[in-house]
Amino acid sequence: MFTDAINYINLHGICGPLTFNVTAGQAFVETPPAMTGHWHCGQSIIFQKTAGTNPVIQPTGGGGATDAGITISGGDYITFDGIDVSRLTGTAMEYGFLVRNLNATDGAQNNTIQNTTISLDRANATSRGIMQTSTTTGGGVTPTNASGANSNNIYRNLTIRNVYGGINLNGTSAFPDLACQITTTACGTFNVIGDPGTPADIGGGTLTTATFGIQLSTKVASRSSRFDPERVEHDRSIGWDQHWHLSRYVHCSEQHHSNDPPQQHDFHRVSRGDSRHP
Q1: Bigger pLDDT: 164 or 223?
Q2: What is the DSSP letter of 192?
Q3: CA 149 to chain centre
Q4: Where are the domains of the chain?
């Protein structure tokens, strides 16, 4: 279903808003192609579940390094709402959702991924629940214009399990990704990364390669809030470096200012160590 729909809109485009209502509880054994259309706000595309259990895409991956349940490659104004991703077999899947630019001047912008559960296989050290990239990691391209950055994307109401790293937003210095959000729809709702019932669910407990719950790399201007790290072990559950423009892990009542230093608050049930000081 997803493969057919994406192939059609990549080939023919759309002339107005388009919504796909996906029947609840279905499993789709497929690895859909990348969404590459460059649309505007009057041509939005929504994949959403009907009432009930989330439908799930079950990809298997292959020999490549960028296999994903859903790939948005330069696509704009796309929403996946209540669509889960869970690998069918094997360890070949690198990403649940992969959001990247198509080329140096065509970024993936104004997209929303929400109300989803992602589960891959932590045995793959490159597996990430969500990867947003404008670098060669994940198949992105270094932007030469602000239009080539991956800006204004929203990641909301997430549950991520059985991956090596939770969420990675990876930008570049000259044209950073701007105004991206990792958040929820309510103060009492938290994004959950890691299964509290599975020791070392994120990263598998190995020290070979660093793991994380959320990592913003290089130049990313982002707001992140209401994050509940569960079983992110042997590294840091939140990562930043000196190149961040803005990274806020804050309570919903706080204000956000671009000149504030990174802060983080309101963490719950951290399973190992103190994630407040990465």
Answers
A1: 164
A2: E
A3: 15
A4: 2-264
